[in-house]
## 1
Amino acid sequence: AVRGPPGPGLSAPCLCRRERVRAMFYHAYEHYLESAFPYDELRPLTCDGQDTWGSFSLTLIDALDTLLILGNASEFQRVVNVLQEGVDFDIDVNASVFETNIRVVGGLLSAHLLSRKAGVEVEAGWPCSGPLLRMAEEAARKLLPAFQTPTGMPYGTVNLLHGVNPGETPVTCTAGIGTFIVEFATLSHLTGDPVFEDVARKALKALWKNRSDIGLVGNHIDVVTAKWVAQDAGIGAGVDSYFEYLVKGAILLQDKELMSMFLEYNKAIKNYTKFDDWYLWVQMYKGTVSMPVFQSLEAYWPGLQSLIGDVDNAMRTFLNYYTVWKQFGGLPEFYNIPQGYTVDKREGYPLRPELIESAMYLYRATRDPTLLELGRDAVESIEKISKVDCGFATIKDLRDHRLDNRMESFFLAETIKYLYLLFDPDNFMHNDGSDFDVVVTPYGECVLNAGGYIFNTEAHPIDPAALHCCRKRKEEQWEVEDLLREFYSRKKTKKFTLKRAPDHGEGENAKNSEDASSVKAGEKRNSKKSSHSLLSCPSQSFNSKLAVLGQVFLDNT
């Protein structure tokens, strides 16, 4: 039972719903551990498990950061140890490059960056080193052979032991090419190896280069010849997270080029695919309607619109999607907009998070109570229709509520997480920068846990400030040196010298440099509990200000 009054900013109904969501998580999580671990996923109708995406104990990796968001640091710590001992990427398995990146690499990176907050004893040099970071890097290196194509666009599948199979199809969906920059850039910044960010950028730009004359991209492309195989353009399945990562990559990396690319796409999307606040599928070269269909995966779009400050349009589209939810108690995979009904053989709802994700973002931006109503409806629907003795089952058909014997790992990674954050306004994920930690690394001080988290497309949060912990650009170092010299000259104190810090990427020499010798690697201090010298004032990086209240500040605002 929940005791005592709700916390600050938390109404009693929200508190009650938050605790219901917590109970949903543990009903699913505990049955996974009991009946399915170490398999990837739980089969809730038969109370057993199955490997689906590569035999990684995937649900455990996907659920790890959700544990901390729900406040369970002790289980987080236990699972970290289990994963270090039990997960092996040197296996003869054909794995999806896309899914392995967003679920495994993304989940491990997020857990790595949250480890200290969860009370894990981190090693010297963290967050620039650590066992979960090494696991994420190992998994990502297994994916690199897929990017060795004439275009730089990756194959969709790779064998973790042998690389790309000789007979592998060169046809990959757009999202499977353009959904790497968040995880791979984070890896490059933390490890010092630029190869990850380089291949992700090359793939993004290859798609941009091959857009049509009217500014649209299709659904599937040949990564060898760069010829479009499926020419349907839209914002849903097969394309979705490419657009998402242009925006989130721009925020994470403070990259104007990525944002300008998205804004150009956004113009074409509005011109050719938007009708009455719905988004249809059109032919990428002509702009003619090919499918007047709403796909459940498109429901991320209002949340993405809120990130660029287009809140009014986002709310109108969200309300369209919400009417579909209320019609069926969930979002069918395909919904025929003119007919107002499901599409044959696409009537299922696998407990996807996208509409709840958009509700969470929009509620942060507007505090509109309608968004909480969606959260309430989602909890009621999922519990009433999907809950079984061993977890929560995919809904095979929303018309008659038949179930399928599968619980996808994203249910714990995304659906539960976004529901919980919708009903928990005081969660540390919503930090506005008023609280933060100062961490001392071999490269100097950096600020962490100040908020502005970037969720990857599997809802694994990345702290953007962490990307600045493991390197110092020369121009930044010189600017600091100039300020220090000016300060000391005005104070007329004793003379001092500062050596230029080595560039990021100079390997162990950088880590062992004399500049870092006076810094105790791994020393950790909380900003509220320690006083800083005049020369160690923590500053909030520009990128951590970008996502305040769900907005991105563009040059012209």
## 2
Amino acid sequence: DDLNVLFIVVDDLRPVLGCYGDKLVKSPNIDQLASQSVVFSNAYAQQAVCAPSRVSFLTGRRPDTTRLYDFYSYWRVHAGNYSTMPQYFKENGYVTLSVGKVFHPGVSSNYSDDYPYSWSIRPFHPSTEKYENDKTCRGKGGKLYANLVCPVDVTKMPSGTLPDIQSTEEAIRLLNVMKNKQQKFFLAIGYHKPHIPLRYPQEFLKLYPLENITLAPDPWVPEKLPPVAYNPWTDIRQRDDVEALNVSFPYGPLPDDFQRQVRQSYYAAVSYLDTQVGRLLNALDDVGLSNNTIVVFTGDHGWSLGEHGEWAKYSNFDVATCVPLMFYVPGMTARPVSRGKRVFPYLDPFSHGLGLVPQGQSKKVVELVSLFSTLAELAGLQVPPACPETSFHVVLCTEGASIVRYFNASEEKVEEEKEGCDDAYKCFNEEPVAFSQYPRPADSPQWNSDKPKLKDIRIMGYSMRAVDYRYTVWVGFNPNNFSADFEDVHAGELYMVETDPNQDYNIYNNTSHSSFFKKILG
């Protein structure tokens, strides 16, 4: 039986969710999805910024292959005419639909969200998206500001709504259209929140009394953090409320009480997002498609909430690269339900307490670049071939292997397969790792460190995350020929996950790391 695909991607969402063990965040609808899904607790983006990450997972190629490290080039013109995941589904008879922020808008998707290559009809963008950065946040004396922390009365917003509410409504409309079409579909919906500004319906603040909000466990800049690794969170400094705090550049810190407010609003925005996901999945039940639709839920990258004295994305730390990732596959991750029975009844975060436990949790380290081949396999399409070493000329191939093999393998079983390998180096290579990277314009934080333009990139931080460590080298990079020089190492980081889960104690300088270095070159 042909399966539809509902692909949900959330902007700047780190795994602060009940189903990921977060005790504070109320996310009953996403938790309910997780309870019917395979959930990956070690999933990583390939670059912690919107456009490069999205182009990477939508093409199944790494940033060094898409050649997009900033926002200012279109891969089909500047790298190679790579097929995308929705394009592949479209070529295989699916109606492909895009709602909200799926591709990053602008030049990096040809000002068209890659239409008509990727989508059957013109992508939908909510009409109120254009007010996102306007002064819509009520401040002192009733004046309006463009704040970072921005709880709002939705009825007083332009058109009386918010972009994510409009996206949910459009996606539900499309589900109803497709129900009658008898044609299989790939519907992608990109939610904006919790991307800044943290603008969400003010009632969600009630879920998070300020006295329950703590600071990050490590709100200081680590002593041995190389300056090149630090991101100075320039984007949030430009918001009116942060600007008024007059925080010193680049290390800050933000005042403690304001840190708590940012964390509170991030969580509130996540709960608001959860209600939108809940309404969408409830509609999937309403149209009777929960039994034959794969649901994927993920984010484009994480977001620091004060860890290491950092905010926003733009780094190689777990808090910036780790994302939620779950797959609901009817008949595989969940038993089919009888007709008329609901899989995803809407859950109100104001009345639903503790989340449900995920169906299957995998600690395997996986990458978003694997989404393309994984979804192809789950939908029963031919899995695109693995890319050759250089693949600029190859239209259809992927640099991320399908992770379906981890879906029902108990962790032990996969371990055993490894025992049987004769070539020691290959054995070493079998343990999955995730690669992320981040460009910098200079060795120390400056105004454009977070988002350097291609021509200004001088250093590339290549980072490798295994189950038990994160290893990063910052090496010279030449933007004219896109080449990294691994002999020109500017700085390094090594964190052992078991003893240092928050990545605060860099032991790069007191450890021999030649084996890691070989592997990152491999």
## 3
Amino acid sequence: YSSAVQKFSQTLQSFQFDFIGDTLTDDEINIAESFKEFAELLHEVELERSMMVQNASDLLIKPLENFRKEQIGFTKERKKKFEKDGEKFYSMLDRHLHLSSKKKESQLQEADLQVDKERHNFFESSLEYVYQIQEVQESKKFSIVEPVLAFLHSLFTYNNLTVELTQDFLPYKQQLQLSLQNTRNHFSSTREELEDLKKRMKEAPLTCKLPGQPTIEGYLYTQEKWALGISWVKYYCQYEKEAKTLRMTPIDQKPGAKQGTLDLTLKSCVRRKTDSIDKRFCFDIETNERSGTITLQALSEANRRLWMEAMDGKEPIYHSPITKQEEMELNEVGFKFVRKCINAVETKGITTEGVYRTVGSNIQVQKLLNAFFDPKCPGDVDLQSGDWDIKTITSSLKFYLRNLSEPVMTYKLHKELVQAAKSENLDYRLGAIHALVYKLPDKNREMLELLIQHLVNICEHSRENLMSPSNMGVIFGPTLMRAQEDTVAAMMNIKFQNIVVEILIEHFGKIYSGPPEDTTAPPVPPPRVAARRHKPITISKRPLRERPLFFDASVEESGAERLGQTPNGGGVEAPKPLHRSRLPAPRPGGDEPGRPPAESRSQLRAEPELGKLVSRLQDGGAKPAGRAANGVVTSPALRTATLQNRRPAPRPGIYGRDGDCDSVPKPRSHGDKPVITRPPVRPPDPPCRTPIPPKLEQRPDLIAGTAEEMPSSV
């Protein structure tokens, strides 16, 4: 599992996002860098996990194996020697007892000396065997528990790290979720525009509109009057909207005719009434070069609509319930309509959940607009009455703004506003948009201020209506701004239109407090050569935390390895047991809510006493006191268990139903260290006595002699 996670982490580290467009939003930058943050987080967790697994071998398995080999194995050797010397002594003693008393005195004395010598060897073997049994029985109490305790310390250190990483990850997760939600909203808004564009392109497949090329181009038929009558000539036409120039190239040119390409400057364009001509799809244009009107025939109704939109023809927006040209401008009736809608929303719908995001009925919207913009009594509609719900009012306001002949923020400034939103310099964004707002015509700036003030009021109630500045930007970005040419590239810039509106809402007070000192926009910053000023969000980096040295290395080597650590704690070399040069440090200013108190967390960290214990285990068990391999001077007191608290054995027979006894401590107060006590499974054994080999138990006189002959040093 750990290996699979490591491979997954490497995949995330090397993964690269591909984006369409020349610039990324701040949210897209956060998303693009998120996999690297995930990879570092997984790497740090798996690094600590691998160290924990290695600690299981170095701190638990190896010390227990060493105890078994060195202590228990040595005891078995003592037992063999004792049995061998015992057999030898008893056999000699039997032979000695069978000696005849009639033998010479010198022979008897020599036999007595040999028996005394074997008896002394046997006594030494028995004493060494008994002493070794006693040493094993006593030392196993701490030599076996200490490795388990050290391993548990390593295990809880790993768990403590994952808890602290989780606490550090939560703020990053919330910010990333916000970026994901904003990006999803931009995607939804862009997808709707792209679907609408695709639908329009299917309706008029012969019309091509490309950026940097003629605004619109395609085939048109021109009515030409001759002496003998009227004829229709087919032309390939290219119209440049900015220069208002129309280039007409004849297709079916008659042989010998001198007719060539015509370059005309457009003055006006008017739809031709159907009942005034016997041809369909016709419209009239006036030019500076020719007197009178020129009648053109498009290929279809949809094709005629596109030509007239490009030429600013006097043709209503397709399917628009507003039918009069003067009603498509920012006139007095339009301002009255916007103010009435704003007053109605702020009076009875400002806390409505999803206000402006929820769409009203299209039939009701058309009914409201037709009633309000009725030429006989314009504006004579009471929006405060119960006849109009909030969804209908908000949808009508958005429809009116979107179907103006020119958007509130004008076609002229559209490109500059988008470029300002694309800037990586946050100060430049605000400064450029601030300056461009005051380049708008007076009516447009007044309408924009009216709308943005209203959106600010809406966002102030975001806890109730759940509409943040980012959400309002997604809704009103395409409403207040739109490109003059419908292209896929223009659709991809919708997310930056949303950012412009979001900036206007967030900095309304500064922008509308007055024009900037210099009314011109700041110069465009040079291309990026250094790091982006708006840095992507990251998981919080914790400062280094000191930790005692638990392995065979010098302090200087430890410092060198600390320098080789990555910012998130990953090392270049293979991990060493319980060695992390950087661990999560306690945060300044106390404990955070929901986290364990500092006292309980500190018990899981490297305590000096436990550090000495682990150091002694890794040095191979019990060693003479003195200077350890890592240069730390240890005292003889370290050979005793530092964490053992001697407690009297609980008395049998006094446990209640819940396993309580009178020796169990009372509930500890805050700050006291916990003491783990467990009721014994069986009553304690009687007072321990030194184990005696079976053969010695049969010879009490030998045991007594052993005590008399035991050296004082022993």
## 4
Amino acid sequence: MKVAVAGCCHGALDKMYETLELLQRRHNVRPDLLLCCGDFQAVRNEADLRCMAVPAKYRHMQTFYRYYSGEKKAPVLTVFIGGNHEASNHLQELPYGGWVAPNIYYLGYAGVVRFRGVRIGGISGIFKSHDYRKGHFECPPYNQQTIRSAYHVRNIEVFKLKQLKRPIDIFMSHDWPRSIYHYGNKKQLLKMKSFFRQEVESNTLGSPAASELLQHLKPTYWFSAHLHVKFAAFMQHEANSKEELPKATKFLALDKCLPHRDFLQIIDVEHDPSAGDSLEYDAEWIAVLKATNSLVNVTQSSWNMPEKNGLHAKWDYSVTEEAIKEVLEELNHDLKIPCNFTLTAACYDPSKPQKNMEPVHTINPQTTEFCAQFGLTDINDRIQQAKEEGSGRGECEEEEEEEMDSTGSAEEPSEYNTDNSGLSSFNPDEIMLDEEGGDEDLSTCSVDPSPDHPPEFSTSFSDIRIMPDSMAVSSDDAMDSNNEELEKSGGSKQVEEKSSTERSLKRIGGDENGNSGVKKIKRRNQAIYAAEDEDK
């Protein structure tokens, strides 16, 4: 079957679906499924905009609300993960996944589903070491810290995914797996994006948690977005035993959804011709959720997942074939995900704007039904209970006096090792400037797999590319390190404020007490954000 893959959507659903229709008209290619790798921005109303971590001047309604209201319907089944620019209050309603609109499905904090026999997994958010070991404690109304920590990846989601044993066909993450750039045309990437150089050469660009999952899951395809640059790589995995067959992953990062951007990719994926056209639960994933349900945490306390270190009676939560069989029997072997989308918030009305609409903590009926069916903890219900009980560790903090419209710069790296796998480096890609600095953006570029293996793209317009059968990369080229001097405009050194006339940047992360202060900002991030107005 044909699968379309998109990078950061940024709420431009009309543009994305119009591009697919153009593809069909010009090339007679109709995708059976659309995957989106984060920054989907399922914004329903003005309150949702207030829960999106972007400067105020970039909070635009876009077009998702038309699909939420029923005015429009997605022309192709769409499955997406969350990024770091989302209506976090909306996605938080569906921690285990669910429909955000008819024919548009969110995978949750982490999730695995099936479509026509193809197994699709994903993890939402981006990696930040200082939040990695916390529980999902955030809920609206968010403050300056929680509006960002709400989309930070947690160790429990990675732990759940690492319990999977059956092969994964496609996996999505928003930020790139750390080190993946060593398996593609790194020289060309650095030529186009010289401000990546320091982090690439120090091997700190990307998510160590995603890298750990890549090594464990070894999916056939891995798709990412976040950095707004197209990049392909090919990773050959080592076999864990003599009996295991060699596996390889084709990695592709997509650009963001804007005119004249290379933001869509079409791939052919082997599928089960006898399977139906409905999106289905994955029996092993449901069994893993049931097995790990006791590990659910809604506090801010840092904690490690169980490991074989003598401190835990149980550390292996992978499931048996018998447990998977029990899930199938519970469902009467009908894995079809019910089309139970429900409106849970008022929809934006252009004729009646409500700029003062406040976000509220909502328990979605889809999540209630899912948890009741499989005996799982409703995370939002648990948070609500903690709030009502006055639990300081689980309750939602009120908004600070300072408005959410103000934003800050990078948070400081954590001093502790994250989880039991030593994920201690922090991800510098989530940099927020002050309101006048602009939102995240990268200038346009498209990095091909290798000069020795050019892509066999058949389309003649810039928004769509057809993936070649092979994405193999020349090993010599992939490992080449270019030692030329950094371009002055794209260096990756940190820059401090040098005069009182420059606007001060506020640190949103702060220390453990939430104290703010002046913070350095990397020059590569200045280059990333500088192009935003050119795209508008």
